[in-house]
Design a protein that fits this description.
about 200 residues; Rna Polymerase Sigma Factor, Chain: A; Arc Repressor Mutant, subunit A; about 0% strand
Length: about 200
């Protein structure tokens, strides 16, 4: 028995070339079966890696058919994982039915000082936070309404958030770090939280 003639677990260079040449067709095959091109690309990349490591006993002339089987199994695994994740989320939802998003009234009561401090910011900062954060708009909405580029809108929102953060730290002291769930500060009168 010759130990040196042990079969390789890697694909031959010819088989690898066939798989590389079929990349576009493999990707199209996957795109028709999954929800997005990004998911298809991820599955294809993982299948290539697995195929290069484990396809050594596949004959070169049958490597494409074999790889389509690998891709079909990868798609099945993908949907199986999604289904498992969905069932886990449903179970979690049944386990914690009382956990809900805070309603508008609760959000309003969490910390009144923020809205008061918002009024002390420069008008363009106040407008930026109003559109992007409070109205949940997009940077392009702010850019259009303000007559600036989207890049400038992003900078303005960043600076406005930083300015508001500084004002909250000045008005609320340590509550701004530890949380304002029981806020009793009067930002407009200059009092600190908890005083």
């Amino acid at each position: 028995m010759n130990l040196e003639s042990k079969p390789s677990t890697a694909l031959s260079p010819e088989a690898i070339a066939q798989l590389v040449n079929g990349h576009r067709e493999f990707l199209a095959f996957l795109e028709r079966r999954v929800e997005s091109r990004a998911v298809a690309e991820d599955i294809l990349q993982a299948a290539f890696t697995r195929g290069l490591e484990r396809g050594g006993d596949v004959q070169d002339e049958k490597v494409v058919a074999w790889f389509y089987r690998v891709l079909r199994n990868a798609v099945i695994d993908h949907y199986r994982q999604r289904s498992t994740a969905a069932r886990a989320m449903e179970a979690w939802g049944r386990e914690f039915p009382d956990v809900q998003e805070p309603d508008a009234e609760l959000r309003q009561e969490i910390c009144q000082c923020v809205s008061g401090l918002l009024e002390t910011l420069k008008p363009e900062y106040r407008e930026a936070l109003q559109i992007v954060d409070l109205e949940e708009g997009k940077l392009k909405d702010l850019a259009q309404q303000s007559g600036i580029t989207a890049e400038n809108a992003a900078v303005r929102v960043h600076r406005a958030r930083a300015a508001l953060r500084r004002r909250i730290e000045q008005a609320c002291g340590t509550c701004s770090v530890h949380g304002c769930l029981d806020c009793s500060c009067e930002a407009s009168s200059g009092e600190k939280c908890g005083t």
